[in-house]
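Checklist before submission:
- one chain only
- standard amino acids only
- sequence pasted in full

Submission:
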Amino acid sequence: MLGAAALSAIQVVATSEAYAQEGERFDAETVRNMARQLATKPFKQGNQSLPAALDKLSYDDYRNIRFNADRSIWRGQRLPFEMQLLHRGFLFRDQVDVFVVADGRARRITYDPGLFRFEHGLKAPQGGTDLGFSGFRLHGPLNRPDYLDEIAVFQGASYFRAVAKGQGYGTSARGLAVKTASASGEEFPVFKAFYVEQPRPEVPSIVVHALLDSPSATAAHRFTIRPGDATVMTVEMALYPRTDLTEAGIAPLTSMFLFGPADHAGFDDFRPAVRDAEGLAITDGTGEQLWRPLSNPGRLQISVFSGSNIRGFGLMQRQRSFFDYQDLEARYEKRPSVWVEPIGDWGEGAVHLVEIPTPQEVHDNVVAFWRPKDTLRKGSEYTYTYRLHWTWDMPTPPGLGRVAGIRAGGTDERRLFVIDLVDGPMPGLALDSVRVDVSASQGEIRDVVLQPNPEISGTRLSFAFEPKGAALSELRARVFKGDVPLTETWLYRWTP
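Returned file contents:
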């Protein structure tokens, strides 16, 4: 049964044909059946209209709308989670329906301005208008057992974020990416309805079902969220294309990279780095570990890492000292790394990395996702299951030397790269017994040096790169003992 606070916010309402009718039973197939049915019909834009008082809110105005914590769903029921609703306005115009699932039935939460506080002179909408919501956030025991911290938020198109113990929000995930960086323009699917299962006492996880819609496809998602030292989401997605999809992005991640120690030019800033994530990590189907530092390029660039049966990829934040960022407010050292772990064989495809130039840290300018090799055909069903790890590091770090940081400097004619390596078998190894493989697709590599770096209990690799007039060069470096790799593969795209 729902508690008194929750009952005051939830009413029995009629619903559209796309959603479960009030009183009908809800089970694991309900949202999947909705998505399958919706895909047979033309796409219809959801409600984005707002009352005049909310139609043109500034960012600061929107922040003055706060949920009344005393009316959190499941407040006072001694359950391990609570839910708070998010108001519409500012960038969040889409009306989203939120349902609570209990005892096998879905009950829609009806909008009530009394659920919110409208502060600093902002006027509440008149009663009687069902605005719906823009999303919701979940609270649970994360940093200590007697307090419910915010652990995840679902808001805006198909975006959602989560944190692990001790972290703040950073990199986001999405339900689906379509036509990212396409010349025809990106399409942003939206979660138009959520069905949140009432948590059970003593069970440290919560289940969220989501119905996704877009001109190109519909989808049903099931998220099982377990917060902790690493917050893990098991995601089960059933995808139903409305059209033949050639530019789908599965398990997309979105982040921000402004600058770092290797590419600080053009930014007059007291901080040595500004970024939510510093690199793309990939474990391909052969087991090779790849590390591609992120960049803020002069023009949009796309990198493609092809293969089959991928084992994982993620946007990672490795440098974890305050002194790496020197930002007392943003605390970039506490931003989560997000790792995608496919469950089952996803077949042939590629990890795509999109990097978009930006002059400001307020813009997410990095996207990573997996794209299947074959076209996803209209009228078919495709299922993908994976785990999202919101964590401090990869869930199972490889037993290899890893890149701890890079620096670069010099002139347009000769660039010096310095790569610090830690962990794995490298520390204490006789360096004259190893082989260093450094290559460039264009230009020349010179003066390769590998030496101990006792300051980090690791090793430093340095080399000079001479472009020789190249407009672009793909750099690659790895350390071997015989034919056995001792380090992950460092990749870098150089442009003038």
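Reviewer check: The longest strand covers residues 231-241.
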